[in-house]
Amino acid sequence: MAGVVIVAFSSNDRTDPLADILPVTARLFDNSDTAVSLFDGWDRLLYGNDPYYGLICHAPGTHPTWPDIVRDNYAKGEGLIAETDDIESWIRTALAKRRMQNYRQFEVDAWDGRWLLMTETLVPGGGLLNIGVDITQAKNITTALKQEYQNALVTAETDLLTGMGNRRALERLRKILVSQGRHFQVTALMIDIDQFKPYNDMLGHLQGDLCLQQVAGIIRSSLRIDEAYPIRLGGDEFLVLMLDASLSLAQQVAQRIRNSLSATAIPHPATDSGLVTLSMGLASRDIGTSESLSSLLKDADDALYKAKRDGRNRILSGP
Asked: At the top level of CATH, which class does the domain 24-134 belong to?
C-alpha cells in the first residue's frame, strides 16, 4: 500500500483545528471504505473518515486523544478489541510502541467480528497516520482452509506412516484453493531423499520406514509459518505447500529442513557424506485454477530433479 501525502497549509482560520495541520489530500479519504485517521504528536485525533469513526465511541468531527478512544471502546465493548484485564497498563504498553518505528503493521479484531490490517506511519512533525484495511474475508478463507486440512488428516487422507497428508489431501487442498473465487500466492517445496533405494536395499525396509518417519518429523518441525501444508506424495518424495509465502521465505524453510537433517545425522551407507541428505526444488505462482496449481507443482518438480542432476544435497528454485 503506497500513497503520496502533500502538506498544504490553509488560511488563518483558527476555528477549524485541522486548518493549519491536516494535509489537504487527507480529505480524499472521506469517501474511502478504508479506515483512515491522523493523530498529532500529543496523540490527539486530527482527522478520521467515516469508517474510522465507525470504530470508535466518539461522534464524527470530535477530536479525542488516542488513550481516551481506547478507554471508551474498552468500557463500552465497541470498536477494536483490547484483550486485557488492565486497560491502563495496556495503553501504556501500546503508547510505548506507537512511535518507535517509522512504519509498522499488525492485525486487530473488532467487537463486530471484523478483522483489520492496521498500519502506522510517522509523518513529519510527529504526526501518526493510521490506515485500517478490512481483511475479514481473507481471514475467514484462511480459517476454513486450515479446518478442511485438519479434517483431511483425520480421515482416509492421512499417510499412515508419517502422519502427513497424502495425495487425497493434496486433491482436497486443490479443490479448496480453486473454489474460493480469488487468487492465492502459493509456493511449493518438493523434497526427495537422496539415494533412498540403495538405503532400502542395504538396510532393509523397516529401517527405510524409520528413515521416512524421521525425515517427515524434521519437515513438520521446520514449518514455522501458519499456512504450510506438508504432504507425502509417495515413496521418499514429500511436498510442502505454503500460502502467501514468498520464495525467499520458502528458501529459509528449506534451509531449516536441511540444517535440522544435518544435525540429526542419520547414517547412510551409500552417500559420499555417509549421511542421509535431501534434494529440494522450489517454485512460486499465483494460483487461481487447478491448471495453475499443476503448473506450480511441475515447476517445483523440475527444480527438484535439476538439484539431483547437479549433484544432490542442494536446494534449487524453478522459474
From this structure: alpha beta
